[in-house]
Amino acid sequence: MKKNKTLIFLALLLSSCGIYSFRGNLPAHINSVAIPAVINQTAEIEVADLTIQLVTEYFVAENVIRVASEGNADSDLQITISRITDRPSTFTLQERVEEWRIDITAKVVWYDLKNNKPLFEKDFSRFAFYPPGGDIGSDGVDNDEDGSIDESDEVGDPRTFAIRTTIQKISEDILNEVVSTW
Ligand SMILES: [Ca+2]
Ligand SMILES: [Ca+2]
Q1: Which residue has the higher pLDDT, 179 or 101?
Q2: How many domains does the chain have?
Q3: In this structure, is residue 100 part of a structural domain?
Q4: How many angstroms does the Cα of residue 131 sit away from the middle of ligand 2?
Q5: Ligand 1 center to residue 153 CA distance, Å?
Q6: pLDDT tens across 114-147, in order?
Q7: What is the pLDDT of residue 29?
Q8: Ligand 2 centre from 37 Cα, in Å?
Q9: Is 62 within a domain?
Q10: How far is Cα 3 from Cα 81, in angstroms, rounded to an integer?
Q11: Residue 48 contacts by C-beta under 8 Å, 6 or more apart in sequence?
Q12: Residue 76, SS3 per DSSP
């Protein structure tokens, strides 16, 4: 028991050091990132623009690296949405689909534009669930998994909303990978 407590304390200590040293570990010549374009290899036409928007918003909000325009950045994120698949996840007793699961895979290269080399190259896959229809704003489900049920931004087409939720999760994963690459 005592050993466990010590380990937890050490883990907390290390993780808090990590937070404070994020900026210090950033390669000295990398101060900014551009998210110029997203290649879309799927049939969902809106997913490229949505990905640029959500990844940019997330990076700006988290503020661990400056987001700059193409041509003014030391690095860029080269994102390809390579796969989107839907499959039934749960069924009703009548064997109707109760919930669908959507999986999205993004191939991401964080590229060092000063030294012309990749800083990482990785596939990110995430998923979310959505109902076949109905109003996600009153279904009693936390559709975007943010801890609030049926809050004001849970609106719109369930599948489109699930795509958005999944890309938000991928945005978080990309940022975490950027931070852990430093
Ligand atoms: Ca929610
Ligand atoms: Ca809901």
Answers
A1: 101
A2: 1
A3: yes
A4: 10
A5: 8
A6: 999 999 999 999 999 999 999 999 999 999 999 9
A7: 82
A8: 31
A9: yes
A10: 45
A11: 37, 38, 39, 40, 81
A12: strand
Residue with tokens 């000295």: 28
For residues 156-169, one letter each, b for 16 or more C-beta atoms within 10 angstroms of the residue's C-beta and e for the rest, the string is eebbebbbbbbbbb
Cα separation, 79 vs 34, whole angstroms? 11
Range of the domain at 169: 25-134+160-181
Among 76, 1, 62, residue whose Cα is nearest residue 31: 76
The residue type of 42 is T
Judge whether 79 and 107 are in contact, CB under 8 Å.
Answer: yes
**pLDDT digit string, tens, across residues 3-49:** 555 555 555 545 544 444 455 456 778 999 999 999 999 999 999 99
Task: Compute how many other C-beta atoms are within 10 angstroms of the C-beta atom of residue 142.
Answer: 14
Q: How far apart are CA 157 and CA 42, in angstroms?
A: 19
Query: Residue 61: which CATH number?
Result: 3.40.50.10610
Residue 75 near residue 112 (C-beta atoms within 8 A): yes
In a domain, 125, yes or no: yes
**Cβ distance 171 to 55 under 8 Å?**
yes
Indicate whether 149 belongs to any domain.
Answer: no
pTM score, whole prediction: 0.84
- For residue 119 the two structure tokens come to 């800083």
- 156 Cα: distance to centroid of ligand 2 (angstroms): 10
